[in-house]
Amino acid sequence: MTNFTPILGNGIDKIFLQGALSLGRYEAFFLFLLLAPSIKDLNKTVTKSFLAATILLLACFFMFFGIFSYPSITEDYSVLYELVRMVSYGRFIQRIESLFLLIWLMVTFLYFSLALSLSVLTMKKLFHIQYHKRIIPSVAIIIIASSLLLSSHTDVINLRKFLMDILCPAIFLWGLLMVIVARIKLRICQKGGDQ
Amino acid sequence: MRYCKIMVILLIPLLLAGCYNKKELDNLAYVIAIGADKDEGQNLKITYQIAIPIKIAGEGNEIGTSTYTTYTVSAPSIYLANAKVNALTSKEVNLSHLNLVLYGEDLAKDDLSGHINSLVSNVAIRPRTSVAICKGTAENFLNNVTPVLETSPARYYVLALSSFNYTTESAGTDVLDFYTSAQSPYKDAVAVIATLKEIHETEQSTDSSGGGSNTTKEAEFRGLAAFSGSKMVGEISPEMTIGHLIATNSLSNGALYVPDVKESSKTASIQVRQNGGCKVKVLIEGDVPKVTINANIDAHLEAYSSNTDYLDKENAALLKKEVEEELERRLKEYLEKTVALGSDIAGIGRYAKVNYLTYEEFEKINWKEIYPNATFDVHVDVELSISKIIFHKLPNQ
User: Fold this and answer.
1) What is the least distance, in Å, from the CA of B221 to any CA of chain A?
2) ipTM score assigned to the predicted complex
């Protein structure tokens, strides 16, 4: 338990202010905005998903901080992978990260499928495409070909940094701005209607 | 039907792996131990101990030095040494079965930073691979070590290095713990000491040749090497290691002896085991940390050579007090040794940082600078059980 102390870590400003800059790492929640028309009870679904994700993330990071001490924890670890590598019980229960990699591979393809379907639905709305299922292979090829444009792992890391640290917070703020502008516009319209 | 389709789609990625980059098990040379010693200039002398599977398993399996082979190369790091050894061996070296990383004493006293990092970042090396510091050179150790009770040298290291689970003269140390402790501002790294012990075995012969003697060299993992940062600063003797195990809440099973309560020339043997973690409080007054440690130990009277009746409550209470005093003495001796070396291998700093809200405040006290001023107040509470012991003495004949 001493690994969790000092309780405020590097300070409140670094936790909240610098942490806010890492908001882009939770970009998956933005997908709910795109999925909203397809979900029956949006509030309930979002609440349940948020709670499930929070509990899982908290559990993973609780275990991670408990095992890896500061300052080595500040290094660029893949949290779950390093945790799974630690598992070694007896003679046979060792090196089980290879089993987990299969599960993570399936999760990656699920995420890819979701991203692909949302891209196709967005194109359907934008370009008023009637038979949107026919463009699925084309969009898939475009996405995979785009990913092959990056020639090295360093390029992937740099692009990911740009997307996570700059673009995603910008999208969050843009969405918030759009909602605020829409509310203001609605009130102006309502006031105009009353008059 | 829908779920079946989803499951089939999810299982398709598993077939994408293929066998393009396959590696046959027979084409790999499994390294079971790596040793590093100082060499000229920036280079290290790195010794690879590689298992010979054909000598370990199957008919006519052998033991001793014939179950492995060694290669020694000079290189600035393990990655470059791998490349050199691959040129020497007929098979590609594989570090996934590495069980021991051994550093020579000279190299440990010089500096290990930069070398241990490469072990942690290597995907093939398990984070729980043991680290040891060798008396003499690691090359000599790995060339001459003779596993006797085990045919597999890999299993020999695994079992020998996990002996801290049933002895008090060794402690568990691995690559990840070593690395994180060496980096830590509130704890120092520790590694077990490996020594090569010569054992002469005389064979008796029925013919006139008179027999011969065999010399085997067995590894001994006893005592600890204390580090300050990445440099070895001293040793903790095997007798003091019990203090380290208590302070780090690792005492699973150990033995100690105390003088008999009535006949001081006789001894009583006690089995000890830790009961829960130590309660440690650190109060910092100026530059002096005042440390209070309360430990709980379960003890069991195993044997004694006197005529004292330990079923008597008074004698049992006296014996309990003897055991408490002995454990307090050993723990205090160990802590004072760490203070003298300036190496907080017990990790007392972890308990000091509990008193602060942020790392910035904790780092201002500069724990590693003030640790040599520390004073200790040690209390050990022993629960002594006297049962399952035969009290009837054998008559002298």
Assistant:
1) 21
2) 0.74
